[in-house]
Amino acid sequence: MEDARVVAWDELVLATGSTSFVPPIEGLDADHLLAGTVPGVVAFRTVDDCRRIVETATSAAHAVVLGGGLLGLEAARGLLARGVHVTVVHPQGHPMDRQLDADGGAVLTRVVRGLGARLVLGRFAVAHRPATPETSAEVVLDDGSTLAADLVVVAAGVRPRTDLAAHLGLEVNRAVVVDDQLRTSLPHIHAIGECAEHRGEVPGLVQPGWDQARVLADVLSGADPHATYAGTSVLTRLKAHDIDLASMGCVDIDVHDPDHEVLAFTDPSRGRYAKLVLRADRLVGAILLGVGDAAGALTQLYDTGAPAPRDRLVLMLGRAVTRAAAPESVSLAEMPGSAVICRCNTVTKSAIVAAHRDGADTVPDVAEATRATTGCGGCTSAVEGLCSWLRSTDPSPDPAQPSRRTTPETPAQTPVPALNAALNAALNEGAA
Ligand SMILES: Cc1cc2nc3c(=O)[nH]c(=O)nc-3n(C[C@H](O)[C@H](O)[C@H](O)COP(=O)(O)OP(=O)(O)OC[C@H]3O[C@@H](n4cnc5c(N)ncnc54)[C@H](O)[C@@H]3O)c2cc1C
């Protein structure tokens, strides 16, 4: 707090998140970069950063994105759509190496290159030379090569913000260490979200943080003093125009692993790759790149933990839960009530159907009633689809309930969009 007020507390919850990691690069001062004061270089973290990327891109011919993870690729795709020549520099052998195995990474590499980006793998930036009246700005790589860089986007990962926790004397490993009730090493101090390390995991997505927040609220309010958090099975989805990629669960399992069954489909020339990992007939991990309809069905199978069909070819085609060729209305009807539609807020199809019966029949109504769509926004089209399917099959939200429908005079409370929705909207604006 800027005014140095002292606030008394009985229970303290740390949710200080993370900051962008700025790798050591000669000529780049991390503090200045994070303060947003280095011309032509942006650490990709906030909506303001996104605005600066978009502004700089209007006069940039060449952009270099440092980091080929989720955020780096999303930024690269947005810049390509704005007509900028983009080079992504990634130190590992394939992009998104935390979510993909080598084969999936090789197919993604091809897809990204096919969209027009240059991908420099196995290299990292060692220096940044700003523009002078005589020369353009450039990035120097570890092999001495240089890249023209009117704009540099730093997307090299994040570091949990733990300085306050360390100052308080809490146990800090990669982040603030917490137990299953989100308690830190000192009484009455808790930590959740990206600053917290639970069972060795530090979340990088909103869903685990919000699951933790729910458990902690139950514990602290006394609603359920014994509530515990056992972890979140996260699904990572790349939100980049023309790249349909989801990765979930354990994927780095060898095809001959005796404890798992591994199925793979590789179609590099069409940018398609699917890897399914099963244990005891349940889908416990998957990489789904460019497989369209199958992705939705397989994600549901992963979410619900239902047994996989015995015919593995049927499974590969995503016909485990829905008929792939069925029209959307049939798919929605066949989807089990337990299918998670909004992963950020863990909102199931049943919860949306219940909200609809309660009077919520538009996306903003459903958002208000269930919080679906208010996280990363990736489920908005699924919720839209469900709403229109419900309108056609279950046309009468309970007439006894006051309608949640909003009029132009009384607009719905805008669901708070998470960072990503704003960033993608801005970056992908203009995408073909
Ligand atoms: C560009 C981008 C796109 C993303 N896209 C997705 C996505 O599609 N899906 C997804 O699930 N996740 C996405 N994420 C990740 C997601 O944003 C984070 O996982 C989530 O925001 C973490 O929440 P948090 O509350 O732990 O931390 P934060 O959201 O970082 O919030 C921490 C807050 O604490 C404040 N703070 C820090 N120190 C103090 C202090 N001492 N006192 C008071 N306040 C303090 C900070 O200013 C900040 O406002 C994205 C992240 C980025 C950067």
Core attributes:
alpha/beta; Enolase-like, domain 1; FAD/NAD(P)-binding domain; 13 helices; single chain; 21 strands; 5-stranded antiparallel β-sheet; disordered C terminus; 5-stranded parallel β-sheet; 432 residues; binds flavin-adenine dinucleotide; Arc Repressor Mutant, subunit A
Can you walk me through this structure?
With 432 residues, the protein is of the alpha/beta class. Among the domains are: 18-159, FAD/NAD(P)-binding domain (3-Layer(bba) Sandwich), CATH 3.50.50; 250-325, 2-Layer Sandwich (Enolase-like, domain 1), CATH 3.30.390; 340-419, BFD-like [2Fe-2S]-binding domain (Arc Repressor Mutant, subunit A). It is 30% helix and 22% strand. It contains 13 helices and 21 strands. The protein has helices spanning 30-34, 47-57, 70-81, 102-114, 163-168, 206-221, 293-304, 312-316, 328-334, 349-357, 363-370, 380-393, 419-428, and strands spanning 12-14, 18-20, 41-43, 62-66, 85-90, 118-121, 125-129, 138-141, 146-148, 151-154, 158-160, 176-178, 189-191, 196-198, 235-240, 243-249, 261-267, 272-279, 282-289, 340-342, 347-348. A 5-stranded parallel beta sheet has the order 3-10-4-5-6, covered by helices on one side. It has a 5-stranded antiparallel beta sheet with strand order 15-16-19-18-17, with helices on both faces. The chain has a 3-stranded antiparallel beta sheet with strand order 7-8-9, with no helix packed on it. A hairpin with a 2-residue loop joins β15 (235-240) and β16 (243-249). α10 packs across α12. The longest helix is centred in the middle third of the chain and has 16 residues, at 206-221. The two termini are 43 Å apart. Keywords: FAD, Flavoprotein, Heme, Iron, Iron-sulfur, Metal-binding, Oxidoreductase. Its cofactor is FAD; [4Fe-4S] cluster; siroheme. Belongs to the nitrite and sulfite reductase 4Fe-4S domain family.
